[in-house]
């Protein structure tokens, strides 16, 4: 098991990180899905945009079936975020949320995803369906995902839809989820800046959970910038993780 070598290393906290007091609301226990309100501060949102300016390229997907097919599935643009001090604090927050046992080497580089009008990401799971992508030499599969909303300018559409989740009944959820969606469409989170959705991708036995299927719905006007924080089952190499930067 991956966890054994990592367990020796205590998790080191950066005392200079100032974590915002975000609110957590469980939407689903199985699969585990938790809504996090206020997960990113306004300063962090601005900083993330600042350090990634002009670095976006057309998003890739794991089982690339040629450029053409790829762009129809995921029409957004994406970029990896350089790991400076602000980004390391966001990483620390994402790790602490998951307990104290996950070392930072299990995190992929944070990824920003940008959508302009009419762009979307078709239904997919974040866990790799191709076992070749989930081998232990490359960190195993994706245990969990955070999808955070970094910016949303004059947006309509662009929610994050989980078709297999049951819509909750209390109207208070309508602040965060689109209550106008028909019941059979599952749950659609609104793109509210600063919020994040956390969910688990794998079942107890490590196989992928089909119920974690989701999509980035088309942005019908305005634009959206989101961020993926993916935690692997095991450590990733320094080469994949990239360097810490000042
Ligand atoms: O854009 C969204 O709402 C979801 C994006 C997503 O699922 C992904 O990038 O893996
Ligand atoms: Fe996704």
From TrEMBL:
What is the native source organism of this protein?
A: Anthostomella pinea
Question: Keywords for this entry?
Answer: Dioxygenase, Iron, Metal-binding, Oxidoreductase, Signal
- The protein in question is named Uu.00g077400.m01.CDS01
Gene3D superfamilies the UniProt entry points to? q2cbj1_9rhob like domain
The Fe2OG dioxygenase domain sits at: 105-233
GO CC field: endoplasmic reticulum
> Do the record's keywords include Aminoacyl-tRNA synthetase?
no
State a single Gene Ontology molecular function.
L-ascorbic acid binding
Entry's SMART domains? Answer: P4Hc
Known PANTHER family for this protein? PROLYL 4-HYDROXYLASE ALPHA SUBUNIT (PTHR10869), TRANSMEMBRANE PROLYL 4-HYDROXYLASE (PTHR10869:SF246)
Please give the PROSITE patterns that the UniProt record associates with this protein: FE2OG_OXY
Per its UniProt record, the required cofactor names are: L-ascorbate
Q: Which InterPro entries match?
A: Oxoglu/Fe-dep_dioxygenase_dom (IPR005123), P4HA-like (IPR045054), Pro_4_hyd_alph (IPR006620), Pro_4_hyd_alph_FE2OG_OXY (IPR044862)
């Amino acid at each position: 098991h991956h966890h054994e070598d990592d367990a020796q290393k205590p998790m080191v906290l950066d005392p200079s990180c100032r974590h915002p007091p975000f609110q957590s609301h469980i939407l689903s226990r199985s699969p585990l899905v938790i809504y996090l309100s206020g997960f990113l501060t306004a300063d962090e949102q601005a900083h993330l945009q600042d350090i990634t300016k002009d670095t976006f390229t057309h998003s890739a997907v794991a089982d690339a079936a040629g450029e053409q097919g790829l762009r129809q599935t995921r029409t957004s643009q994406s970029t990896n975020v350089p790991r400076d001090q602000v980004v390391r604090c966001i990483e620390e927050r994402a790790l602490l949320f998951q307990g104290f046992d996950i070392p930072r080497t299990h995190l992929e580089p944070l990824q920003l995803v940008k959508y302009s009008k009419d762009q979307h990401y078709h239904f997919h799971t974040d866990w790799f369906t191709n076992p070749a992508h989930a081998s232990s030499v490359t960190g195993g599969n994706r245990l969990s995902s955070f999808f955070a909303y970094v910016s949303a300018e004059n947006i309509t559409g662009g929610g994050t839809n989980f078709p297999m989740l049951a819509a909750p009944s209390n109207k208070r959820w309508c602040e965060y989820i689109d209550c106008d969606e028909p019941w059979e469409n599952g749950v659609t989170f609104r793109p509210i800046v600063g919020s994040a959705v956390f969910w688990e991708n794998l079942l107890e036995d490590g196989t992928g959970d089909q119920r974690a299927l989701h999509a980035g719905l088309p942005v019908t006007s305005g634009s959206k910038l989101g961020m993926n924080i993916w935690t692997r089952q095991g450590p990733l190499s320094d080469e994949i993780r990239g360097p810490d930067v000042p």
